[in-house]
């Protein structure tokens, strides 16, 4: 029987404790607004984290991981081998990376223009089935931030919906930095309103439009109160970033 590795044991215990703490926060936030805890998914943001940390968190039961950098993500996918979780891309999409995203990811949460939607659709392998897509909305219209302008969401959604190799699942946002988590609630509420509008504009797709990706380590409670169905947590799960 191989000897236990104290460093790995300590890492696994730290990850387990953080996961329990984050899940407890999600459950408590759901109960506080009369929502079922199972209505909110946890996306582990694993950018800058090693494949050993991803593997350990996956073994603890986390089934979805978010990455910002394509090459880094592919290296982790290769390192994990056959045991693959669900992979979400959450960073800005560069045109020269769309083929890799279409081939290697399950979700792209940061589609913000028609050109990117078209490339992802054209490059999605038929044997992988449709790619799950979220439109990233620059909800506070910050000049330095990626995302579709709120007024352009319906037009972009219409383009995505008519592409058979894509499934529009909803919206994602990163609101402006605020003084306290509750200050982000109006931005989260606006995103929820945009999703409601999409459901009205495209009633035949209402069942598919089921995802609001919003809220991170610091403000997940505020996001859940405003309707988040997926929260993106990095530091809260893995500790301070490596880079």
Describe the structure in your own words.
This protein is α/β, with parallel strands linked by helices and 243 residues long. It has one domain (6-238): TIM Barrel. The chain contains 9 helices and 8 strands. The protein has helices at 6-32, 51-59, 70-80, 98-104, 114-123, 153-161, 185-201, 220-225, 235-238, and strands at 41-45, 64-67, 86-89, 107-111, 131-137, 166-173, 211-213, 230-233. It is globular and about 55 Å long. The mean pLDDT is 94.
Number of helices: 9
CATH superfamily heading: Alanine racemase
Q: Which descriptor suits the 3D outline? A: globular
Query: How would you state the average pLDDT, rounded?
Result: 94
Distance between the termini: 36 Å
Strand content: 15-25%
* Poorly predicted runs of 5 or more residues: none
Instruction: Count every beta strand, where a strand is a DSSP E run of 2 or more residues.
Output: 8
Rg, Å, rounded: 18 Å
* Spatial strand order of the main sheet: 7-6-5-4-3-2-1-8
Record keyword descriptors for this entry.
9 helices; 243 residues; TIM Barrel; alpha/beta; single chain; 8-stranded parallel beta sheet; globular; 8 strands
């Amino acid at each position: 029987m191989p000897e236990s590795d104290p460093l790995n044991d300590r890492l696994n215990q730290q990850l387990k404790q953080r996961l329990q703490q984050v899940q407890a926060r999600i459950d408590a936030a759901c109960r506080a607004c009369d929502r079922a805890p199972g209505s909110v998914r946890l996306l582990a943001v694993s950018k800058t984290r090693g494949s050993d940390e991803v593997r350990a968190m996956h073994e603890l039961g986390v089934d979805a991981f978010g990455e910002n950098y394509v090459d880094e993500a592919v290296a982790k996918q290769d390192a994990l081998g056959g045991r693959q979780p669900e992979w979400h891309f959450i960073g800005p999409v560069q045109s020269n990376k769309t083929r890799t995203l279409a081939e290697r990811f399950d979700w792209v949460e940061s589609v913000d223009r028609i050109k990117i939607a078209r490339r992802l659709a054209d490059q999605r392998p038929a044997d992988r089935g449709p790619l799950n897509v979220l439109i990233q909305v620059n909800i506070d219209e910050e000049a330095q931030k990626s995302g579709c302008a709120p007024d352009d969401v319906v037009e972009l959604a219409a383009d995505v919906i008519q592409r058979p190799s894509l499934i529009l699942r909803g919206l994602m946002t990163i609101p402006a930095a605020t003084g306290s988590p509750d200050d982000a609630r109006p931005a989260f509420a606006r995103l929820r309103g945009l999703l409601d509008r999409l459901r009205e504009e495209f009633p035949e797709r209402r069942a598919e439009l089921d995802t609001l990706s919003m809220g991170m380590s610091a403000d997940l409670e505020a996001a859940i109160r405003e309707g988040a169905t997926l929260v993106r947590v990095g530091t809260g799960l893995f500790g301070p970033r490596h880079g």
